[in-house]
Design brief:
By secondary structure, this protein is an alpha+beta fold. It has 18 helices and 23 strands. The protein is globular.
């Protein structure tokens, strides 16, 4: 058999490529081994001869943190003592008493009590103040330390003393910690015009099935259901498999939902729906916000790419990376980004490029000029590199400075506590509304309380002054600046009245959360939610809904 000269040259080049590739790999592993030896020797010499004793664990953790700075924020070292947090992200469960807290000044206050939790069964209420924990005074205790006391293995006992916010009476409680399961479906109901609504907060174990159960219950109780809103705003994501399970409720069997590609090619996978859909026909809207990320974006991306429904709200966060946990010695874990994920159209929606950094080592967003175009199943254009862009955009609601200050200072929370103890009965959350007299009572409640703040205009003016001083222009502008500053001085009470509607809404939500924990705040908030209004309008207008699904 004769081999042509071209083939001989081709085989020779192929052989050289293989040798070169092997050399490159061996060279890389040699460099790794070499630098590990240097690192170990460096630490040994430093630890032996440095004039002071060096804490080995602290020193090594700093070294690990320095290495992690070269990766993305999702790659992390998890020591054994922090595994509970990792477990909570996957399961939605943690050992504790079932409450949220907030520390302001000297004391920590109970802000939420989870339904069915040990704290709820003991009769603890939002607004109660923590006096002591296991015999230790909670006065001036950091919030993180209070949280450590509240958490613990199921079956262990917490001795806690609480002060009533109105009567100031102190009561001791003996609370047995349990496995607290934070519900991934925080609310499900009908908003208006026979439109269903499901709020999902995280993608933990079995969350997809729980959304399915909520949807089936909605359909059973409301035979005339005309559409459904799946609210993924603020949902940080979680388990990729649960995103596929949830998508399968509305997307039929054997449809590609997401694929992953990384350095280890044997780990590349395609994730398809495994079961027939529960409902292929019902009109669907997925709500997203700037903080909808990861698995939430997988669902939104699949619904959009397969033209199964519309995405409404704001552009999502843009997390297109997949993490895997790897075991380390002494029960520690490495949570490491191993792949990028791709929606059915083939786009990766990762917004920040961590592989390319500036001279300061900072990663930046993928510029619009480098974002590539893809098409949905029906031919609608979509782009990669910047999260999921909604089919119908709604401007993000921005709270006024006075409202932000009232929330931050806990004055809205404190007034809701006072209201709850002076009004033992309440209307259903959806129909509750503060009267004019009650809002006036809130204004009086604020008398003597400090809620000073700077408006955004004042902050901009101060920034202008700083720049003018630096550039030596301020001297000639001082009089005009001071005159403008006087004109802009805001009257706090006038700001309250100017933003009355917004503040009333926040008060109503917090008050309803006292009577109907967790669900009351959500249900009341739905009555003035612009994203929900847009979704209801689209689902109630089949022609417009279909037009957006076909739009090219």
């Amino acid at each position: 058999m004769r081999i042509s000269k071209k083939k001989i040259i081709l085989f020779s080049l192929l052989g050289l490529c293989l040798v070169f590739a092997a050399f490159r790999n061996s060279d890389k592993y040699f460099l790794i081994a070499k630098n590990l030896d240097i690192f170990a020797a460096f630490y040994r010499e430093l630890n032996t001869y440095y004039v002071e004793d060096l804490p080995p664990e602290k020193l090594m953790h700093k070294g690990i943190e320095a290495m992690l700075e070269e990766t993305d924020p999702y790659t992390d070292f998890v020591p054994e003592e922090e595994l509970d947090e990792l477990r909570f992200m996957a399961t939605g469960k943690y050992g504790g008493v079932g409450t949220s807290i907030y520390t302001e000044g000297e004391w920590t206050t109970i802000t939420d009590v989870y339904e069915g939790s040990p704290m709820a069964r003991a009769g603890v209420k939002a607004g109660d103040i923590i006096v002591s924990l296991d015999g230790k005074s909670a006065k001036n205790m950091e919030q993180e330390e209070v949280s450590r006391f509240l958490k613990g293995n199921a079956g262990t006992v917490l001795n806690i003393v609480l002060r009533h916010p109105i009567t100031q009476k102190e009561t001791p409680y003996k609370i047995v910690r349990e496995d607290i399961n934070v519900k991934p479906v925080s609310f499900a109901g009908v908003v208006r015009n026979e439109i269903g609504y499901i709020k999902m907060t995280q993608f933990t174990e079995s969350s997809g099935i729980l959304v399915q159960d909520a949807f089936l219950k909605l359909k059973k109780e409301n035979p005339g259901l005309k559409g459904v809103i799946l609210d993924l705003r603020g949902n940080p994501g979680g388990l990729l498999e649960e995103a596929v399970t949830l998508s399968n409720i509305f997307i039929d069997k054997n449809k590609l939902i997401v694929s992953t590609k990384g350095k280890v090619k044997s780990w590349d996978r395609e994730y398809k729906t495994a079961q027939p859909a529960i409902d292929l026909a019902i009109p669907l809207v997925v709500l997203t916000s700037r903080s909808s990320a990861s698995a939430a974006e997988i669902v939104a991306g699949a619904v959009q790419d397969l033209d199964r429904g519309l995405v409404v709200g704001q552009r999502s966060y843009g997390k297109g990376l997949v993490q895997t946990t790897r075991p380390l010695p002494y029960n520690a874990k490495l949570k490491v980004t191993t792949a990028r994920y791709y929606t059915p159209s083939g786009r990766c929606i990762q917004a920040i490029d961590y592989s390319s950094r500036n001279e300061e080592g900072e990663a930046d967003y993928v510029p619009d000029s480098l974002r590539r175009s893809f098409v949905t199943a029906a031919g609608r254009p979509v782009k990669d590199g910047g999260g999921i862009e909604p089919d119908a955009k709604v401007d993000n609601m921005v709270l006024s400075q006075v409202a932000i200050t009232l929330l931050r200072k806990q004055y809205i929370f404190d007034y809701a506590t006072q209201y709850y103890y002076s009004h033992q009965q309440a209307k259903p959350a959806s129909s509750f509304s503060l009267t004019e007299a009650e809002f006036d009572d809130f204004v009086k409640f604020l008398d003597g309380r400090d809620y000073s703040y700077k408006t955004r205009s004042e902050e901009a003016l101060e920034s202008f002054r700083t720049t003018a001083e630096r550039e030596k222009y301020y001297g000639g502008l001082a009089k005009e600046f001071e005159a403008l500053q006087q004109k802009m001085k805001h009257d706090k009470k006038q700001d309250l009245l100017r933003n009355k509607t917004e503040i009333k809404h926040l008060l109503e939500e917090e008050i309803m959360n006292r009577y109907y924990p967790q669900q009351g705040r959500i249900e009341k908030g739905l009555s003035w939610d612009k994203d929900v209004d847009q979704a209801v309008a689209l689902l109630g207008n089949p022609a417009r809904y279909q037009e957006l699904l076909r739009k090219k």
